[in-house]
Amino acid sequence: MPHSKAPKSEGKASHKEDVSADPRCKRKIIRYKPPLNRSLGLSSDYVSLLGMFLSVCGLTLRLKWCSWLSLYCSCVSFATSREVDFLSQGFPSYVVCISALVMAYMRDPEPMTLPWN
Asked: Rg (Cα) of the chain, in Å, rounded?
């Protein structure tokens, strides 16, 4: 027969040679551990909630600075969110922010004045 099977002892010997030929030192292998996320800022949920609250204040009171702050909060919450699902939480937040800005500028197209001026 043209194909002859090699004896099993040769297979075991080559396996031991492969293991001993491994140049890595098993004592020095350091497993990867993902870094702990210790951000000092507010979580994206709280910033999103603050943005929605500012949007409602901007819509009801027609305060431009509330509307602008709500847009800023929405951008921050989108940038820091870990969730992939943007359409369920992020998109409605942007829609309310933009509508608050549009309503504030439709009522009074003058440039924004700061509350302390």
From this structure: 31
